[in-house]
Amino acid sequence: MILAGFVLLATGLCDVLRRFLHGRAFWIGTAVAAVLVLVLGTLGGAYLFALIGIACAVLWAWLLPLEGRPRLSFWPAVLLAVVVVVSVVLMPARAVTGLFAGRWLATPLGPIGFDLFILAIGVFALLLETGNVIVRAALVGEEAELPADVASGDGPPAEAVHGLVPALGLDPGAPTGPEPTAPAPAADPGFRGGRLIGPLERVIVLLLTLFAAYPLLAAMLAAKGIVRFPEISRDGASGARAEYFLVGSLVSWVVALGGALLLWWAARAG
After folding, report:
1. What pLDDT shows up at residue 187?
2. Are 139 and 145 in contact (CB under 8 A)?
3. What is the mean pLDDT of each run of 10 residues along the chain (270 residues)?
4. What is the pLDDT of residue 72?
5. Which residue range forms the structural domain that includes residue 201?
6. Does the CA dihedral 213-216-219-224 come out positive or negative?
7. What angle in degrees, to the nearest 10, is found between the helix axes of 75-90 and 131-141?
């Protein structure tokens, strides 16, 4: 259990840092996060598991970069799930040594030990930016990226058309035909706000599942489909918008529900 917690915690922190920090700030933040994970591992008598978690986070960041196509497609996420599940199944809560030995943390779901606490904050960290990374890997792997011609209507994007003018050596200011009409409005990029909506949605799904608020969970998932319906209804014959929405939403929900199931399983096994 403790191995799964440190793997998820280190991976989640790594993705948050590389999403919001750049350059020297990223390396400083990464060093601070690594020290924090090592301190938690040392105080809980699990520094070796903390080191393994940091190594897994480094490998994760290399396999799934934030820009460009992910290495090995969606398989790093599958491997992460296998490692975490096997760790929880084969490594139940242990006798904690160090500062946290014998200490219990009171929660609304009952008292939990150090191992389950690390797993809980690791799952929470996973639902933030790592969830977005997993969703993006699934969309790229299934080639479900929203194409520009779907967002802007039939024909090539306006940027591609304007880019031909200097390439052909033409004077953009010279008259080439009838008087130009008013410029068309900017194309609707579609499905905006996913980077913020996704983490909030996953956290809500996790909490509602843990507290067995299944009617509220079903209502929230249905409400998302209703809110996104106007965008999906503009879909063309390709069905790209619907595919983009379904793949992204289902993968995001699986991540959140998987985290809730993992915590429930670990609590029962401990």
Report:
1. 40
2. yes
3. 92 94 93 94 88 95 89 89 89 67 67 85 94 89 54 38 38 45 44 70 91 88 78 66 80 92 83
4. 84
5. 2-145+192-269
6. negative
7. 130
Q: Is residue 224 part of a domain?
A: yes
Task: Report if residue 174 sits inside a domain.
Answer: no
Has residue 126 been placed in a domain? yes
Distance CA 83, CA 73 (A): 18
How many structural domains compose the chain? Answer: 1
Query: Is there a domain that residue 36 lies in?
Result: yes
In whole angstroms, what is the distance from residue 243 CA to residue 230 CA?
A: 15
- Provide the token pair at 145: 């990226």
- Contact of 244 with 145, CB cutoff 8 Å: yes
Closest to 148 in 3D by CA, of 140, 139, 158 = 158
Q: Please give the model's pTM, rounded to 2 decimal places.
A: 0.76
Contact call for residues 1 and 266 (beta carbons, < 8 A): yes
Distance between CA atoms of residues 128 and 32, nearest Å:
19
Alpha helices (H) in 21-141, listed in sequence order: 24-43, 47-63, 75-90, 114-125, 131-141
Q: How many CB atoms lie within 10 A of CB 65?
A: 12
CA-closest candidate to residue 253, choices 89, 78, 135, 76 = 135
